Amino acid sequence: MTATADIEQVVPFDAACPLVGVEEEYLVVDPETREAAPRSAAVVARAAAALGEQVGTEITRYQVEAKTRPCARTAELETQLRQMRAAVASAAADEGLRVVASGTAVLGDVVPPLITENPRYGIGIANYRSLHDEQSICAGHVHVHLPDRERAVLVSNHLRPWLPTLIALMANSPLWCGRDTGYASWRTLCWGKWPVAGPPPYFTSAAEYDEVIAQLTEAKVLVDPGTIFWDIRPSARLPTLEVRVTDVPATAGESALLGAIVRALVVTALERVERGDPGPRIRGELLRASYWQAARDGLAGDAIDPVSGRLLPASAQVDALLALLRPALEETGDLDLVVERVARLHVVGTGAARQAVVHARRGSAADVVDELVRDFSGQLFG
Asked: Which domain of life is it from (predicted)?
């Protein structure tokens, strides 16, 4: 999300329909071998002519990061996502390359990855060492305008139970370097190894949040605020709450769906915070187990309700989420879009399910890459 440091001066905060933006991470691939290619810098240099600061490099040389501007409506967000992806795809084509949106590298020798030259990355490698070996992974991040840090931290408590459901809905990383992992979101498992990653703790206030961050910094667990990798965090530089739990969606339409759902979650949670509801205190082991179940089976299997601990169909958990969000989705104007697109995902499958179908039918990870290239600029909904 760019150009938002002064967002509250440009557009007043609207608790019923806050601005939303999406960051996406992509992988550059060679069209002949279909392997991840360490040439993201050249793609970014070309794409910057159209996108400016909305596009940049990431920690590995295989990755491109692109960001929408803040949007009031989901239709506007989807338009920006399509334009952004088109610009990146065009830049890659000019370099004789292709781009895919997948949570993991389907093919390629990316362990250990080639790291982008940056002094900050050097400090991180010295601190985290071989944790970087599996960093050729791509996520989708949603920023929702929420300038009050106290409320942002309290809203986070209400979002925590639904993080596994978001993982299942947007699962898009079943293959890793040519191997079928047996998981819908292998990226989730890779990412969970980091010391400050996964679901954030339950915090009673922004002061408690800041105290924990100070302790982690003093203990040298964090290099800087940018290495707070929890799946929900108040942005260190923007007046937003960032939800960063999912794989990057294969299509722009799925990314727009994710943005609409996350914004509705924030609107719903904010209303509860204003009523004095502190949010559910979930047992850490249940939330961890729920993450694992969602990452393994995605939308097609079962889910563990992290509040009750009950095992139920993942589709039932999604239904419960939509029921919770219905008033907020009506307020933001996204109810029909979200209901229709979630129903469509139940029919055609998540990104992970679609990758798995191609891999099973054709027996080739290269065919999966070709399908992801088509999905990158294509339409799942329409």
From this structure: Bacteria
What domain range is 83 assigned to?
Answer: 17-371
Residue at 376 is within a domain: no
Backbone angle region of 129, left / alpha / beta, with phi > 0 → left and psi within -120 to 50 → alpha: left
DSSP letter string, 223-258: SSGGG-EESEEE-SSSSEEEEEEEEPPSSHHHHHHH
Structural domain contains residue 27:
yes
Distances (CA, A) of 29 to 58, 122, 273: 15, 25, 44
pLDDT digits (tens, 9 = 90+) for 82-140: 999 999 999 999 999 999 999 999 999 999 998 888 888 888 888 889 888 999 999 99
Q: Is residue 10 part of a domain?
A: no
Q: CATH number of the domain at 197, please.
A: 3.30.590.20
Strand pairing class (240-247; 232-234): antiparallel
How many whole angstroms separate alpha carbon 378 and alpha carbon 359? 19
**For the chain, what is the mean pLDDT?**
94
DSSP alpha helix (H) spans, 13-162: 40-51, 74-94, 119-128, 149-159
Provide the number of structural domains found in the chain: 1
Per-residue pLDDT tens for 332-367? 999 999 999 999 999 999 999 999 999 999 889 999
Residue 69: DSSP 8-state: P
Residue 381, in any domain of the structure: no
